[in-house]
Design brief:
With 96 residues, the chain is of the alpha+beta class. It is built from 5 helices and 4 strands, in the order αααββββαα. Strand 1 and strand 2 form a beta hairpin. The longest helix is centred in the C-terminal third of the chain and has 9 residues. The chain starts with a helix and ends in a 15-residue tail after the last helix.
């Protein structure tokens, strides 16, 4: 409680709004990135909740960074779901 609150027993609007925000929580916390998966085509980390594209293949959902990666995957999904094979990548079409 600030000086005004101590003197008059009332919290300021700023103090009230600060009370609402959890201490130490940030919008982009490390826990948020723990839910990301790899785009099977380019290897980029993708949040399944906000992924721009997804496909179902053999009972599993795959998430993509872009519709271009989805289109590449859909053309030959076995290429990107096989064990130990390298990802093709797509060289820098991501804007960061």
């Amino acid at each position: 409680m600030g000086l005004f609150g101590k003197l008059f027993g009332k919290k300021t609007e700023k103090e009230e709004s600060m009370k609402m925000a959890p201490v130490g929580m940030k919008e982009h916390s490390p826990m948020a990135s723990a839910s990301k998966v790899k785009d099977p085509v380019c290897g980029m980390d993708v949040d399944p909740k906000t992924a721009p594209a997804k496909s179902e293949y053999m009972g599993k959902t795959y998430y993509f960074c872009s519709s271009a990666c989805k289109k590449t995957f859909d053309a030959n999904p076995a290429k990107y779901t096989g064990g130990g094979q390298e990802m093709a990548g797509h060289g820098g079409h991501h804007n960061m």
